[in-house]
Specification:
alpha/beta; Rossmann fold; 2 domains; 8-stranded mixed β-sheet; 6-stranded parallel β-sheet; 22 strands; about 30% helix
């Protein structure tokens, strides 16, 4: 199970002003089709009401271990047993101290002691408080016991101060949840290298030869590989997309830079998924100063071919190579030609003129073609779902090596 559908997330909320962000987290997890159970310390109810969480999750929110109206007997035990993961967001200094000491003073710490599910801590507190030796000692103690941490982040706090103490953003926390839940996935111990985006070939300091690629497909593949336990490396051309959590992101600009990084990262890798739209040509010579338009009615430049990264890559024997063919005509014919000429194991062909499948879209409709000639047409689905289908094939290819 590599998406969050059907996962049981127990969300512990503790006494911090950042608790308001936990409502958004609970809502986003519910939208991702998780079953979310919220447990709260008494201090947390001073900042946000249990009704808020029960409203966004559709499940009761537990604020006391003495709640006689609970729908389950010994709620902390029942929730601890059915949890796939226990997420503490926000986690205060007091919470860290209680967990490190093995204290059981409230339903949150009780559930933590009773569960055998992985625990993810999301600290939020004053920067000086987080830096205190006692707090840092508690963090190290919990890490030594296998507790996962995400954040805190640098930023502005409710107090108006700036520093390291801000609760991680909701999407970052969800990325961390996916990472933790995927540790035992079918790509555990495997290294998957992914490329993304459109390379930029410099004309002068302000202009370049490029394309419309947004990088969304490659970022989705890298995130999906992480969610299955892989050590995911994402080599991306310039993109406005944020770095996926727990993915090793390497940012490059040109085709030559991407070639060098791919060659280095593919040493010892299990698969290369080349979603990047690498420019086919680059200026024969980059101009060092901005080209002025004054006195020019036209501009002519000489272009030379860029390296064919997929075709030329020399890596350890057994590397699975997956390519993409973004075409506007003769989709399958062009895809089969690339599959053969670049010596690929699998190619993903998509018609960029089709509705919902163009550059920048969040969805894609593709055809998977392998080196044995087998073709599989996928419907219009999210790019993450496309990535999951691609990785299903990668898993099979790795197993059959």
């Amino acid at each position: 199970m590599y998406n969050l559908t059907g996962r049981n997330v127990v969300l512990g909320v503790t006494g911090s002003i950042a608790a308001y962000k936990s409502a958004d987290l609970a809502s986003k997890l519910t939208q991702a089709e998780c079953s979310v159970d919220v447990i709260m310390t008494p201090e947390a109810t001073n900042f946000i009401a249990p009704l808020t969480f029960s409203s966004v999750t559709g499940n009761p929110a537990y604020a006391s271990m003495w709640d006689a109206a609970s729908d389950v007997s010994e709620a902390h035990v029942a929730l601890a047993r059915r949890a796939d993961i226990l997420v503490i967001a926000p986690a205060t200094a007091t919470t860290l101290a209680r967990f490190a000491a093995g204290s059981a003073e409230d339903i949150v710490s009780l559930t933590a002691l009773a569960t055998r599910a992985p625990i993810l801590m999301c600290p939020a507190m004053d920067p000086n408080m987080f830096a205190h030796p006692a707090v840092q000692a508690n963090v190290e103690t919990l890490k030594s016991r296998g507790v996962y941490f995400v954040g805190p982040e640098e930023g502005r706090l409710a107090s108006g101060q700036m520093g390291l103490g801000r609760l991680s953003e909701v999407e970052t926390v969800i990325g961390a949840i996916r990472y933790v839940l995927g540790r035992s996935g079918d790509l555990a111990s495997k290294k998957i290298v992914v490329t993304a985006g459109g390379t930029r070939e410099q004309i002068d300091p302000v202009r370049y030869v490029g394309n419309y690629s947004s990088g969304k497909m490659g970022f989705a593949v890298a995130a999906a590989a992480r969610d299955r336990g892989a050590a995911a490396v994402l080599i991306t051309a310039p993109s406005s997309l944020p770095d996926p959590y727990a993915v090793d992101v390497i940012r490059v600009k040109s085709a030559l830079e991407m070639r060098d990084e791919v060659a280095e990262q593919c040493a010892g890798a299990d698969a290369l998924v080349m979603t990047a739209a690498v420019a086919d040509y680059q200026p024969a010579e980059a101009i060092g100063e901005k080209i002025k338009r004054e006195g020019r009615d036209s501009l002519t430049m000489s272009l030379v071919r860029t390296p064919d990264i997929l075709k030329d890559i020399e890596a350890d024997e057994g590397l699975i190579k997956v390519g993409f063919a973004a075409e506007s005509n003769d989709l399958l014919a062009n895809a089969r030609k690339k599959l053969k000429s670049k010596r690929l194991d699998l190619i993903v062909a998509n018609d960029i003129t089709a509705e919902g499948s163009g550059f920048g879209a969040d969805t894609n409709q593709v055809m998977l073609v392998d080196k044995d000639g087998t073709e599989e047409a996928l419907p219009l689905i999210s790019k993450y779902e496309v990535a999951s289908h691609i990785l299903d094939r990668v898993v099979s290819l790795i197993e059959s090596r």
